Amino acid sequence: MREKGSRRDMEHRLYLTMTVLVTVILLCSLGFTLAMDIARERKALDRKITDAATYVAELRGVHDMLEAGYPDPGVTEQLEAITEFVSGIDSILIADRNGLRFYQTSRHMAGDMYVDGDETRILTGAAPYITTVQGTDGPLHCAFHAIRNAEGVTEGFVMVSVAVSKITGQSQQIMLVYVAMFLAMLLLSILLTGAFFRFQRTMLLGHEPVELLSLYVKQDEVINSLAEGIVSVGQNGKILFANKPAELLLAGQSCALVGKSLKEVFPDTHFEQILEDGTAVMNQMYVNGDQTLLINEVPVTEHGEQPGGVLLILQDRTEALRLSDELSGARNMMDTLRAFNHEFLNKLHIILGYLQTGEIDKAKEFIINSNLVSSQSVRDTANALRVSEVCALVIGKMMHAAESGIRLSLEPGSSLMERDLLMEPGEYVTVIGNLLENAIEELKESDEKNGEIHLGVFAKPGVNVISCEDSGRGIDPAMLDRIFIRGVSTKGKNHGTGLYLVKQVADKYGGEVSVETEPGEGSCFTITLTALQSAERRKGVE
């Protein structure tokens, strides 16, 4: 009952507020219009009596009557006709310089003296004017005009008047009309206000405004308490709504995103594509500073129409990925140590065999070469390469190279996580394995002491770079254009397949293979893959 009463109280306050607001607006607008209308009517009346006084003062009969010194019946009839047909004029008075009345609408006053004193200014040469005088029946609103002869000498004056009571009556009539208009408009406004509230209740599905306010506050609290960021984007690409987690995830601080362009805060958005085909783009990895975000972009449609906007759902995967990396790193390290332990036992058996057969020098050489792969380098490799197949391959190649006195090391900064792979793990094994095997064979054939191979694997979201550099003899410039052709090799028969396979894999994913070489200094192969090129290549194949 309290909630229902509060709703009614809220609606009553809103209703009363709108009624008062409409009343004030009506009073201000109608009051201003009323004042303008009364002023306009007063100006029109002043203009009418002034024009009438001017017209009468210019009549030839009036001049002749004053020169003759007695009233003229013809002029009297003419003036009575003017009084009768010109609406709004109550009285016309004609007097000479001495105040002797030659004509007045009230005939019984003709021949009397006009001595009120209001005519003094007009008789002394003043311009025509309007003033209020005290008449027998009450105040009069009068216009005075001088009557001059041909020489410009003032012979008398004309006074055209209207009763002030008549002007007041006209103003009251106008006010009554406006009061009626005000009451009618106020009644109409009240009815429309009631209709508006009924329409509003219908549009709000029966909810009261206070209910919607409460729902909005609760939903706002719920949305802002979510761990996920929520961003709503309009058809023009501008952000319409963003909760607080979204502001923290995208802007790095609690700052307003509303009104900004989505491209400005999320450059990798597929906004245009989603609006065009209406297909959601899910599970996008986006690195924003130190944070790794998982972003889903979903089209917002109504009744199956074209998308009118896009909804973004953001999740902070930084901590989850860190824990996952630690777990996979520990697991990868365990697998690597097991393999390393197995390999170490094998090496002990080889050393034991050399010792039992009396081949002491070979045992020494084998031990020295084995030191080229330290436990630290194995741990570093396992920590950097989190894809077990690739990690096992590289450590195996390290040990294989060490048997020939070749040091194989991983470039600082190398990293390979499963989430950043742009190819299948087996493809990485093919590329890296063939590059390393080629480099090992090259250094074996070059008979170079202390040969070195530097492997770089740099995998970031959307970009993978693999490099393999050796200190061998380099490649003959005449062979550079043909080294990726199957069967072509500088090592003789039964070779020429490794680089061909590397090129095949790179082409499959739209990657680029570059070679830097200098005779006598060594060679460096670099494979570059991007997510965009890979997606376009696979789409073209399909």
From TrEMBL:
Q: Where in the cell is it found?
A: Cell membrane
- Return the EC number: 2.7.13.3
Q: Which GO terms describe its molecular function?
A: ATP binding; phosphorelay sensor kinase activity
| Primary residence | membrane
The Histidine kinase domain covers 339-533
Question: What does the entry give for GO biological process?
Answer: regulation of DNA-templated transcription
Query: What is the membrane topology noted in the UniProt record heading this document?
Result: Multi-pass membrane protein
Keywords from the named record: ATP-binding, Cell membrane, Kinase, Membrane, Nucleotide-binding, Phosphoprotein, Transferase, Transmembrane, Transmembrane helix, Two-component regulatory system
Q: What broad class of enzyme is this?
A: transferase
* GO cellular component annotations of the record: plasma membrane
PROSITE patterns, per database record: HIS_KIN
According to UniProt, the reaction catalysed is: ATP + protein L-histidine = ADP + protein N-phospho-L-histidine
SUPFAM superfamilies xref list: ATPase domain of HSP90 chaperone/DNA topoisomerase II/histidine kinase, PYP-like sensor domain (PAS domain), Sensory domain-like, Sporulation response regulatory protein Spo0B
The membrane spanning regions, by residue number, are 175-197
- What's the protein here called? histidine kinase
Upper classification of the source organism reads: Bacteria, Bacillati, Bacillota, Clostridia, Lachnospirales
